[in-house]
Structure to design on (842 residues):
C-alpha cells in the first residue's frame, strides 16, 4: 500500500492530522482535512436534497479505536430550487481516538471516500496515512474541535400548521439562524426558515415541514455559524383531536358542577328556582338563560385573556391564576364571605343577593347573570385536575381552536341550566320548597369554608405565616362587615364593606415577595429543563414530579404515594433519581417543560429508566401500589 | 428622472418576485399524478394523459452524473427497463438539465445514448425548462416515480436502498433491494403499494437557477 499524506484527489487536497501531544495520551483526535478548490463543496451527514456524506474506513493497530466523526456545523449550499447542506473551502473532520496504554502508537491510516460537487458531482477518494510516533500536533485540528457544535441550548418545539416552531433563548446577538435537521425526509429544505425575535433574548424559528406528523427530530441549530445540538421528542400521549378536546371540555364542565367549591353556589341557584315554584315558567327560563349568559361570557373572557397573554409570548399554563398570592387571597375572602353569608341568612345587594334569596326579594336577572360569573370564578381552583387535557390542548392550539374548547367547557358547566331553560316545567319534579332549604343552605357554608381553608394554606406556602395572619385579620374584618350589612340599615352597612376593601388593598400591596418552596423536600433534586437529557445521557433512571402547593391532586398524591417511606425506599434501592419541579410560583422554565409533554397543567409525573426509548407519563392519580407498579 | 428610478425599482422588485416562484412541488402518493405535456427526443409531443390505461414509470436522468453512470454501467437500469417493457409498462426517461448544464443533451445525442447504452425507454423526454421536474419535485438523478393505469401516483423516491452514502460506489447494485423492480407486479394491480415513498439519492437535478 502506498502511504501518502497529503493527497491530491482532483478537486481537493486531503491530509491526515492529529492533536496528539505526548505518546502516553489515552485519548486524542485525528482529523481529515479537505482543502477544496473554490466553488466546490462536500456534504454534511444529512446532505439535504442531494449529495452524500463521506465514508471513512480506518485501519489501526489492535488496541486503538477510532470513533465516528464529530460533524462540524454545516452551512447551507443552495442550488435553487434545491437545498443542500455541507462544507466549502478548508474543512477538518475530527475523529476521537482511544487507545490502551500498552499499545505502541504507530501508523494510522484511512480510506476516505467523498462526493465533491460544484455544479456537477464527482466521487473522489484518498488513502491517507500518518505516523503517530513522529506527527506534530495540529493547531488547525484543535481550532476545529473547539468550534464543534457540542453545546446544547434550551428549546421548546411545537408543530404549528405546516411548520415546526422552535423557541429558544440566546443572550448573545446574532443575525442568522438556521436549523439543520439530522434525519432526512421530514422537512422541506429549500424554503426559508423564518426567524422572529420575541424579546431581548427569546427567539422563534419556523421550519417548513413535509410531514406534520413529526414525532421527534434532532439537528444542529446554527446561530451565525455557532452550532448547538438540539434533540426533541413530542409526546404521543397528548395527541387528542380538536373534537375530542371539545367533548372532554363539555364533560369536564358538567363534572365541575359537583366540585366542593362550586356545588354550593350552583345548588343555591337551583334552590332559588325551586322556591320560584312550578308556576312561572317564563321567569325560570329567563333566570336560567341569564345564568348561562354569565357563565359563558366569563369563560369567553378567560379564553380571550389567555389568547392575549399567549400572543404576547408568555408561557402560561392552566392553574396559573393561582400562582399569584393576591388572586389566592381574594379567592379566600370570596369563599369565606360566601360561607358567612350562607350562615347569617342575609341578603346583600347586587351580585351576591340571589345566592340565598327567596323569590320575592330583589331577584333581578342581573343577579342571575353575576351568579354565573361568580360560579366560574369560584370554580377556577377546581378546574385543573378535570380540565388538564382539554385546556392543555386548547392552550397549545391556534386561537381559532382555543375559543371553541373554552365555549364547550362553559356549555358543559352551564349544562343543567340550559336544560332548565329549555324545559322549565321539569323544576316541579324537584322537592317542594320549605324549611329544609334553609337548613341545606346553611350546611353549604361548610364546603365553602373548607375551600377557603385550603386556599389559606396555599397562600401561606406562597408567602409567609405573617402574611397569612394579615389575611386572617382581613377575614375577620370581612366577617364584621357582613354582620354590619345584615344588621344595620342605610349607609352604615356600607362602611363595613368599604373598610374591608381599603384594608385588602393595604395588605395585598405589602405582601412579602414570594418565597420559593423548593427546599421543603430534602430527598428531591431540583428540576431544570436539561435534567432529563442529562440523566438520560448518564443512563440514570429518574422520576419527575411536577407539582405545586395549590394543586390539590398533587398534594394528595404526595401524601398518598410519593412521600410514603416505602416509595422513598423503593426509589433509593432502585437508584431512581427523584426530581421535583415546583410550580407554586410562576416559572417559565417549568411551563416550557410541561409543554414538552403537551401539558399546560399539573399534576404530571414522568418516569424513565435505561432501556426505555421514550419516557413514560404516569397516571395523574397515584397510590403506593399504582406508583410502584408503574415504576417496574 | 424620479419616474425612471421608480420604474427601475419596480422592475427589480417584480423580477425578484418572479425568481421566488421557482418552487419544487411535492406531489402526494396515492393521489392523481400531475399531468404534463413535453417534447421527446423524436420531436413528438408526449402527454401523460395519453397513457391512461397503462402503468407509467418516470426516471429522472443525467448521463454524466456518477450515480446514474453506475446504474447504467452495471446494466441495472437497462435490465429494469427491459422488464418493464415486457410487462407493457411505459418507461419515460426525463432529462431536466438546463442548456449548458451537466446532462443536457440535444435530441440526437439522447437517441444515441439510448442506443450505445442499450437502454429501453419508451420515450426520452427533454424537459429543458425543468417544468416537469418541478411539478414532480424531482430532486436527484436518479429519482423514480411510479404511476398506475388510472393515473394515480403510487411511488416516489429512490430506485433502491443502496441509498445515500459513499458505499453506493463500492456496493453491488445486484444485491440491492430495488423498490421499483420489486413493486412492478403490484403496480399493475393499480392499488396502494407497500412502499409508497423513500428518500431519493444522487446528484441534484441541474435546474436553471440563475
Amino acid at each position: 500500500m502506498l502511504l501518502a499524506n497529503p493527497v491530491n484527489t482532483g478537486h481537493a487536497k486531503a491530509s491526515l492530522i492529529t492533536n496528539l501531544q505526548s505518546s502516553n495520551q489515552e485519548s486524542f483526535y485525528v482529523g481529515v482535512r479537505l482543502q477544496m478548490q473554490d466553488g466546490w463543496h462536500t456534504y454534511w451527514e444529512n446532505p439535504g436534497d442531494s449529495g452524500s456524506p463521506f465514508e471513512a474506513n480506518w485501519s489501526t493497530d489492535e488496541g486503538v479505536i477510532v470513533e465516528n466523526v464529530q460533524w462540524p456545523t454545516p452551512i447551507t449550499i443552495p442550488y435553487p430550487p434545491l437545498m443542500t447542506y455541507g462544507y466549502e473551502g478548508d474543512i477538518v473532520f475530527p475523529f476521537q481516538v482511544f487507545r490502551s496504554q500498552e499499545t505502541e502508537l504507530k501508523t494510522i491510516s484511512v480510506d476516505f471516500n467523498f462526493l465533491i460537487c460544484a455544479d456537477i458531482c464527482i466521487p473522489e477518494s484518498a488513502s491517507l496515512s500518518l505516523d503517530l510516533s513522529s506527527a506534530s500536533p495540529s493547531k488547525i485540528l484543535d481550532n476545529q474541535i473547539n468550534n464543534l457544535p457540542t453545546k446544547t441550548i434550551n428549546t421548546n418545539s411545537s408543530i404549528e400548521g405546516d411548520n415546526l416552531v422552535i423557541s429558544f433563548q440566546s443572550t448573545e446577538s446574532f443575525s442568522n439562524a438556521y436549523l439543520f435537521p439530522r434525519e432526512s425526509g421530514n422537512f422541506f429544505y429549500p424554503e426559508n426558515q423564518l426567524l422572529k425575535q420575541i424579546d431581548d433574548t427569546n427567539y422563534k424559528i419556523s421550519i417548513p415541514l413535509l410531514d406534520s406528523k413529526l414525532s421527534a427530530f434532532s439537528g444542529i441549530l446554527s446561530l451565525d455559524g455557532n452550532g448547538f445540538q438540539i434533540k426533541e421528542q413530542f409526546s404521543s400521549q397528548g395527541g387528542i383531536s380538536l373534537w375530542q378536546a371539545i367533548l372532554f371540555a363539555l364533560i369536564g364542565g358538567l363534572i365541575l358542577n359537583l366540585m366542593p367549591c362550586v356545588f354550593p353556589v350552583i345548588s343555591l341557584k337551583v334552590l332559588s328556582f325551586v322556591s320560584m315554584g312550578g308556576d312561572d315558567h317564563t321567569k325560570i327560563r329567563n333566570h336560567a338563560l341569564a345564568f348561562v349568559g354569565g357563565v359563558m361570557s366569563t369563560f369567553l373572557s378567560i379564553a380571550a385573556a389567555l389568547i392575549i397573554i399567549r400572543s404576547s409570548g408568555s408561557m402560561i399554563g392552566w392553574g396559573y391564576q393561582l400562582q399569584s398570592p393576591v388572586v389566592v387571597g381574594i379567592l379566600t375572602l370570596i369563599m369565606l364571605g360566601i360561607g358567612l353569608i350562607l350562615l347569617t341568612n342575609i341578603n346583600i345587594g347586587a351580585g351576591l343577593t340571589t345566592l340565598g334569596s327567596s323569590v320575592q326579594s330583589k331577584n333581578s336577572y342581573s343577579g342571575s347573570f353575576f351568579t354565573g360569573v361568580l360560579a366560574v370564578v369560584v370554580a377556577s381552583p377546581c378546574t385543573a385536575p378535570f380540565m388538564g387535557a382539554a385546556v392543555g390542548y386548547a392552550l397549545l392550539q391556534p386561537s381559532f381552536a382555543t375559543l371553541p374548547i373554552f365555549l364547550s367547557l362553559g356549555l358543559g358547566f352551564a349544562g343543567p341550566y340550559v336544560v332548565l331553560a329549555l324545559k322549565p316545567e321539569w323544576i316541579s319534579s324537584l322537592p317542594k320548597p320549605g324549611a329544609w332549604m334553609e337548613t341545606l343552605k346553611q350546611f353549604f357554608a361548610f364546603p365553602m369554608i373548607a375551600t377557603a381553608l385550603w386556599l389559606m394554606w396555599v397562600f401561606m406556602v406562597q408567602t409567609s405565616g405573617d402574611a397569612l395572619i394579615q389575611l386572617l385579620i382581613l377575614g375577620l374584618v370581612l366577617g364584621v362587615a357582613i354582620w354590619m350589612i345584615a344588621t344595620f340599615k342605610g349607609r352604615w352597612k356600607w362602611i363595613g364593606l368599604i373598610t374591608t376593601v381599603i384594608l385588602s388593598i393595604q395588605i395585598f400591596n405589602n405582601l412579602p415577595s414570594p418565597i420559593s418552596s423548593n427546599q421543603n423536600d430534602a430527598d428531591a433534586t431540583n428540576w431544570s429543563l436539561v435534567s432529563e437529557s442529562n440523566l438520560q445521557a448518564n443512563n440514570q433512571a429518574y422520576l419527575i414530579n411536577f407539582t405545586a402547593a395549590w394543586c390539590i391532586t398533587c398534594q394528595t398524591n404526595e401524601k398518598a404515594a410519593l412521600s410514603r417511606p416505602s416509595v422513598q425506599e423503593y426509589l433509593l434501592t432502585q437508584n431512581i433519581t427523584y426530581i421535583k419541579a415546583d410550580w407554586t410560583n410562576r416559572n417559565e422554565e417549568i411551563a416550557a417543560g410541561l409543554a414538552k409533554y403537551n401539558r399546560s397543567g399539573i399534576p404530571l409525573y414522568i418516569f424513565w429508566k435505561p432501556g426505555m426509548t421514550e419516557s413514560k407519563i404516569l397516571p395523574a392519580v397515584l397510590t403506593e401500589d399504582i406508583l410502584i407498579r408503574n415504576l417496574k | 428622472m424620479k419616474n425612471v428610478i421608480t420604474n427601475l425599482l419596480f422592475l427589480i422588485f417584480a423580477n425578484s418576485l418572479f425568481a421566488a416562484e421557482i418552487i419544487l412541488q411535492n406531489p402526494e402518493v396515492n393521489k392523481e399524478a400531475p399531468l404534463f405535456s413535453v417534447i421527446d427526443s423524436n420531436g413528438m409531443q408526449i402527454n401523460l394523459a395519453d397513457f391512461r390505461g397503462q402503468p407509467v414509470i418516470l426516471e429522472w436522468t443525467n448521463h454524466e452524473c456518477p450515480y446514474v453512470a453506475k446504474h447504467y454501467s452495471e446494466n441495472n437500469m437497462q435490465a429494469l427497463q427491459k422488464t418493464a417493457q415486457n410487462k407493457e409498462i411505459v418507461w419515460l426517461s426525463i432529462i431536466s438539465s438546463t442548456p449548458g448544464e451537466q446532462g443536457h443533451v440535444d435530441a440526437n445525442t439522447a437517441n444515441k445514448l439510448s442506443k450505445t447504452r442499450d437502454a429501453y425507454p419508451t420515450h426520452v423526454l427533454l424537459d429543458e425548462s425543468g417544468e416537469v421536474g418541478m411539478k414532480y419535485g424531482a430532486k436527484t438523478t436518479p429519482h423514480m416515480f411510479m404511476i398506475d393505469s388510472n393515473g394515480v401516483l403510487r411511488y416516489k423516491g429512490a430506485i433502491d436502498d443502496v441509498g445515500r452514502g459513499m458505499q453506493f460506489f463500492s456496493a453491488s447494485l445486484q444485491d440491492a433491494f430495488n423498490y421499483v423492480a420489486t413493486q412492478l407486479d403490484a403496480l399493475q394491480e393499480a392499488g396502494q403499494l407497500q412502499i409508497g415513498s423513500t428518500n431519493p439519492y444522487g446528484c441534484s437535478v441541474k435546474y436553471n437557477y440563475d
